[in-house]
Every structure is written in structure tokens, then in C-alpha cells.
TrEMBL record:
Keywords linked to the UniProt accession: Oxidoreductase, Thiamine pyrophosphate
Gene3D superfamilies membership: 3.40.50.920, 3.40.50.970
Annotated InterPro entries: DH_E1, THDP-binding, Transketo_C/PFOR_II, Transketolase-like_Pyr-bd, Transketolase_C
CDD domains (UniProt xref): TPP_PYR_E1-PDHc-beta_like
Cofactor: thiamine diphosphate
PANTHER family given in the database record: PYRUVATE DEHYDROGENASE E1 COMPONENT BETA SUBUNIT, PYRUVATE DEHYDROGENASE E1 COMPONENT SUBUNIT BETA
Pfam assignment, any one: Transketolase_C
Keyword set includes Oxidoreductase: yes
Domain Transketolase-like pyrimidine-binding, residue spans: 130-305
Name this polypeptide is given: Dehydrogenase
GO molecular function: oxidoreductase activity, acting on the aldehyde or oxo group of donors, disulfide as acceptor
Amino acid sequence: EAIVRARAGGGPTLRDCKTYRTRAHAEGMGDFTYRTREEVAAWKEKCPIARLRRSLVSLPAVEPEPACTVEDIDNEVAAMIQDARAFAESSPVPSAETATDHVYSQNPAVASGDRPGSAIESPAATDRILTFAAATLEALDEAMAADPAIFVMGEGIGVRGGNFTTTLGLYAKYGAERLCDTPICERGFVGLACGAAMTGTRPVVDFMFIDFINDAFGEIVNQIAKMQYMSSGRLRMPLLLRGCGGVGHSAATHHSGLYHSIYAHIPGLRVVVPSNPFDARGLMAYALRCDDPVLFLEHRELMQTKGPVPQEHYQLPFGRARVVRSGTDVTVVALSLMVQHASLAAEQLSAAGISVELIDPRTVSPLDLETILQSVARTGRLLIVDEAFGPCGFASEIAAQVVDAGFDDLDGPIKRLHGAFAPTPYAPSLERRVVPQVSDIVRAVQDLMRE
């Protein structure tokens, strides 16, 4: 009826399909306390595979006879199952050394960053200035032109070009099939992207505000992050999840998160947090060629900031921190917008005779601990600045790892400066209070120097 209606121009039909789990919750468990055997037997008769088989068998004979019969299919499936069981039973027990294989892509080109385009660490002298948003757009456009497997999904990313101009102009170039506007159903289209990535395409999911990635938490943590591991590397997951967040402009509690600490806790995910246009383009270019799922977190207060960006193609492999500023007295590690705040604080502290070495990790997972340790070995002091919550966070992880691997280089306690452990308020006066300001960083460094 639905087919006839559609072909007659009557439009689409919504079908409500009921499914039923005929087996128990787990092997060896009985579950007839809340349902009867007769009910389960009745639903088994409704099995679509069994119904299709009965339908095929009941069809009138045709000439010439088909190349295979239903019985042939039954026998082929039974043989396949038997072969799979025999293979499993005869295979050796997995070696303990392989327990962490395939958490991430085993593709050596991705692991080493050996892809088209040079891997450069800092912008050469150039008069070419772009905004953060324009830099990532340029990287996305370049990658889509080179790789037809890349497509974008999200709310308002088509003709509109995205809430933050992240896809501006791409709809006119690549069309609706590669710029797919979605309904407000994050778990649905993230699950769709997971399936698409398994088939060999490279989906880009644009959340607009990264807060709403959490509506798809189950898909990301239980499927996307684990797929390569569960398939022993047979399935890839080249999926990019991006969105804006961070505290500012009274966006309040539902539009101000970044969540890098939460997702960095999950094995199988890459977590990228750029702080400037040059890094944003280079990291985006690498993410679009990576075979692992990548969370690309963009601070809203950085989207229209400007900086030098070379014309030629380049990329920045993950796990390589940037030494923003060299110094001798104290190491400050900062992320995203806090890099800009820490740079301003370092200028003020320099005038007071305190030399700050500023490190921008660029990526939280993987984390370039070595660059941080080398800096602490030079300065003897460490302050970590992060606008996110403190408990179980990014700053805590760095502090723990530095104590473990660089304790003898420390001349004082490690200090953390982070946002208040509270939802983000709306009022500007309250908003400023819950996130570190330049003056807070200056004061924290001064206090550390007195330790």
C-alpha cells in the first residue's frame, strides 16, 4: 500500500514496526516470569526471515528452475556457521600482548602523519590572515575536493552554511548529497555516521554547539570508540565530530561546555582542541585524513579571532604540543581560549621579571607529555590552566603524569587553575566569575613563584 501510494504521488508513509526479543536476556536465563511460552512461540512465527522463506516456497514453479533453492541457502548458512565455529574452536587463545591492539588505527601512514602535505609546526612569515572559522573551512573544502568520500551532516549546515560559518559556500559546490541538513536528533544522525564510516566513507558531523554531542553519548562511547577494537581492526572509523563550545557571551549552561576531559577518558577517540587559526587548519586537515574517530572542539570565543595561515596545504599530526612562548621561571600549560589568556598574563608577568614558558598541547588525546616534561625540567614549576571543571579533569591528569615522570625536576607544588565546579550561569557578572581570567592566571603564577 505504501509503495502504491508513493508512486501515485500521495507522498511518504510512516510505518510503525514492532520488534520482539524472543531469546532470554542472557544465555542460561529463563524469562517466563513476565511472559508465556505461547507468547514467544507466536512471535517466532512472525519472524521476517521465516515468513520470507514460507513466501518463497509457496510461489508457483518457474521455468527455467532458479540457480539455487531455499534449501540451498539453508545449507549454505548452516555450513558457514559450522565453519566459523570450527575455526573459533581450533584457533589458539589470543596472546596477552595483543590485549590493547586495534584501540586506534594500525595504519602507519596515519600514525606517523605521512600524508600528502607537509607537517609544519609554526606559521612561516606571511601576510595572509584568516579567522579561525575560515581556516577550518578552507581545510574542509580542500579535503572535500580531494576526497569524494567526505560528507557533512548537521543542523543548518547546508544552504545556511552553519551557525558559525563552518560550511559556508560548500553547499553550492558539493550539493545536498554531501551537505546533509539533519533534524534535531543527535543520537540518530551520529549513529548513521557510525554506520557510514564502517562502509568506507568519511562523515563529518557538525553539532553547531558541542553540548549536544552528549545526546549521542551512547553511540560515541559504545559504538564509535570501540568499533575498531571489536572488529580487530577489520572495520575503520574515519569519523570527525566537531562543534563549538566554551564559556562566553552569556550562552549559559546548555551552550558553554567543551567536555574534552570526559571524552579523553574514552579509549579509541582522538580529542583535538585548537587555540588559533594556524593550528585549527592544520589539525583539521589531519583529522580529515585520520582513520580514527576525532572530536574537534572549537571554542566559540576563538571562531572570529585572526592569525597567519599559509596558502599551501599543510597538516599538524596529533600529539605534538606547541611551545607558544619560551621562559625560564615557570611552565604554564593551557588549552584553547586559555592559551590566549595565558599569553596576555605572560606579558604582564614579564614586565614584573617573571619568565613564563607557555605550552599549548593542541590535542588532549593523544597528549604530548614529553614536551611538558622537558619544559618543567627547565623551569621547575608548573601551572595548568583549563576553563573546564577541576575534579577528574585535564589539569589533574597532567599533574599526575608530571609527578610520576618528572618529580625530581619540580621546585614547588604543581598548581591547577580551572573553572568553577558549577553549571555556567547566564548573567555576565556571574559568567566571568566561573571561568579563569587573565588576572587570575597572573595571580596564580605569582603565588606559585612564592612557594
